[in-house]
Design a protein that fits this description.
Largest interface: A-B, 36 and 40 residues
Number of strands of chain B: 0
Strand content of chain A: 15-25%
Shape of chain A: elongated
CATH topology of the largest domain in chain A: Thrombin, subunit H
CATH architecture of the largest domain in chain B: Orthogonal Bundle
Largest sheet of chain A: 6 strands, antiparallel, barrel
Helix content of chain B: over 70%
Largest sheet of chain B: none
Oligomer: heterodimer
Order of helices and strands of chain B: HHHHHHHH
Structural class of chain A: alpha+beta
CATH topology of the largest domain in chain B: Rna Polymerase Sigma Factor, Chain: A
Number of domains of chain B: 2
Distance between the termini of chain A: 127 Å
Shape of chain B: elongated
Number of strands of chain A: 12
Strand content of chain B: under 5%
CATH class of the largest domain in chain B: Mainly Alpha
Strand order of the largest sheet of chain A: 1-2-5-4-3-12
């Protein structure tokens, strides 16, 4: 068989144009004759290569076509970049060069300045000394003036008398105009009352409502230095809270505001008192009068007392007592309770940050 | 259809040299590549070159192997373009280390080596085809690439009959193979 026929056979085999019989014969031949097999392999490879070139060319053609379409649509910019892009491009490209140039410029200017100053130093020194002295004198004078001013200012400043407190507890604003709710037992028999915010600012307050039965008291800050708080972050609901609700409180068992959390354990208080809740929370003397707040930022109660011989059994006055109190005193004072809690949905840390400013330490003697 | 399936369809289209698929991939990815290259010391024209090259790499991958990429098309193209461009920057000695970014990339070095080898082979074939001259080149192309029949070829090239054309084609083929394999074996 000559090469022409053989190549033809290989091509037909590759294209699958052979009859089954021819195919069988051809495969047999390849098996028996390694030269023919080698030739078939080589030729197939060659033809594949040739086809691949063609495929590649037509694919490249497609790519070019697509690219042209996109260039015409303006998606691919054929033109050189302009404007801002150009500046960015140039900056990216030459920033190293620019940096080097800037360094050289800096070195040159610094060394020039140094040399110039070195040569003119002696001359300057004689000029400089008196100037410095003069300036110093002037400065000293100014310092003395300022000192005097400070002295006179401190002398004129009204110094608040240090309040000698016999007890301290907690209270919280129920109206931004300075109305504070706390316990009645806190202010019992107190002659003077001050409330202190977390910054340590003290304001004089007077009780406007005291109810020993519910253990609720409302104070009013009378100090003119007290700045009104326009919107309280928490709300005070009328409705009863649910068993198992997670609650937290802020209070002043020490000089620092202290956070504590727990849950509502019963809907009634000490010996079945329906005006209060039983809550499980860790509190200490000083926490009395602190707000009991749920996760939605609602003040559901006011901490009042704890069971002496049981741990973590604390009683809190229900918030609806505040409403009752308001009805009783509304003739003399206008108090508006906050209706919506701005801190609802915040995480605890942020809730506390907002509430802190509205919780006060109550001191009295 | 989820993204993977959509991409698979695109890749199948690409393997079949479907213009729509090519265009879709172009539209989806070109600008990202351009901004990468312009940010790294290149011109938009460089981006067009590099992107075409990457499209060819992708085409080879899908036309020889499976349609399954181990990553999304955009990640693959970005990785290839990035590699190709960094290589070119190195060649131009404008290597910019800021291109070592934290973008998501997949390793493509091996594939690019294969791609280069293929490119070299194809260049050999193209050179060989150019060397055998006319009418051999057209004759072979007509038969092997355009798949024209012998009588058609005989008529077109003015041979008296298809046997004559066949003999002529055979001679041309032998010459082409000789040139190609001479270079190919030298190269290997």
């Amino acid at each position: 068989m000559d090469d022409t026929l053989l190549l033809d056979a290989i091509e037909r085999y590759k294209r699958d144009e052979m009859t089954a019989q021819e195919k069988k014969f051809f495969e047999e031949m390849r098996k028996n004759n390694p030269d023919i097999d080698q030739m078939a392999v080589e030729h197939t490879f060659f033809l594949n290569e040739l086809e691949r070139l063609e495929q590649r060319k037509s694919y490249k053609h497609t790519l070019d076509e697509v690219e042209n379409t996109l260039v015409n649509e303006g998606i691919i910019s054929k033109k050189q970049i302009k404007g801002r892009a150009k500046v960015i491009y140039l900056w990216n490209r030459y920033r190293k060069t620019i940096a080097v140039a800037a360094c050289i410029a800096a070195i040159v200017s610094i060394s020039t300045a140094t040399i110039v100053s070195m040569y003119s130093e002696t001359k300057q020194a004689t000029n400089l000394t008196p100037l410095v002295n003069f300036k110093l004198n002037e400065l000293n004078g100014k310092i003395n003036q300022i000192k005097n001013k400070i002295d006179s200012a401190t002398a004129a400043m009204p110094v608040k008398p240090k309040f000698a407190a016999q007890f301290s507890a907690t209270g919280f604003l129920i109206d931004g105009n300075g109305f504070i709710a706390t316990n009645a037992h806190v202010i019992n028999n107190a002659k003077n009352l001050v409330v202190e915010n977390k910054k340590g600012d003290q304001f004089i307050a007077i009780p406007v409502y005291v109810n020993k039965a519910t253990d609720l008291a409302i104070l009013k800050i009378t100090d003119t230095t007290f700045k009104k708080i326009t919107a309280l972050p928490y709300s005070i609901p009328r409705a009863s809270a649910e068993l198992g609700e997670h609650i937290f409180t802020l209070g002043y068992p020490r000089d620092e505001v202290v956070y504590g959390e727990g849950y509502l354990s019963a809907k009634s208080g000490y010996s079945g008192d329906t005006a209060s809740y039983q809550i499980s929370i860790s509190v200490n003397p000083g926490n009395s009068g602190g707000p009991v707040i749920n996760k939605n930022g609602e003040v559901i109660g006011i901490i009042s007392s704890k069971e002496t011989n049981a741990d973590g059994v604390v009683f809190a006055i229900k918030s609806r007592n505040i409403y009752k109190a308001l009805e009783e005193i509304k003739t003399s004072q206008l108090i508006k309770l906050p209706a919506a809690a701005a801190i609802k949905g915040l995480d605890r840390v942020h809730q506390i940050k907002k509430i802190e400013d509205c919780v006060f330490m109550i001191k009295g003697n | 259809m989820n993204i993977l399936e959509q991409e698979k369809v695109l890749l199948q289209g690409l393997a079949a040299n479907d213009k729509k698929a090519v265009e879709a991939i172009y539209r989806e990815n070109y600008l990202t590549i351009q901004s990468f290259i312009v940010k790294n010391n290149g011109y938009p024209d460089d981006a067009r070159d590099i992107f075409q090259e990457a499209m060819i790499v992708l085409y080879e991958k899908v036309s020889t192997g499976s349609f399954e990429l181990t990553c999304q098309i955009k990640t693959y193209l970005y990785s290839v373009c990035r590699r190709l461009w960094l290589k070119r920057l190195q060649q131009m000695q404008r290597y910019n280390p800021s291109a070592e970014s934290v973008d998501e990339i997949v390793p493509v070095e091996e594939e690019l080596d294969v791609h280069e080898k293929r490119n070299a082979d194809l260049i050999l074939m193209e050179n060989a085809l150019n060397k055998i001259g006319e009418p051999c080149k057209s004759l072979l192309e007509a038969y092997y690439l355009q798949k024209k029949s012998m009588p058609e070829i005989a008529k077109f090239f003015g041979y008296t009959n298809s046997d004559n054309a066949k003999t002529q084609k055979y001679k041309c083929l032998v010459r082409l193979k000789k040139i190609f394999f001479a270079q190919y074996k030298n190269g290997v």
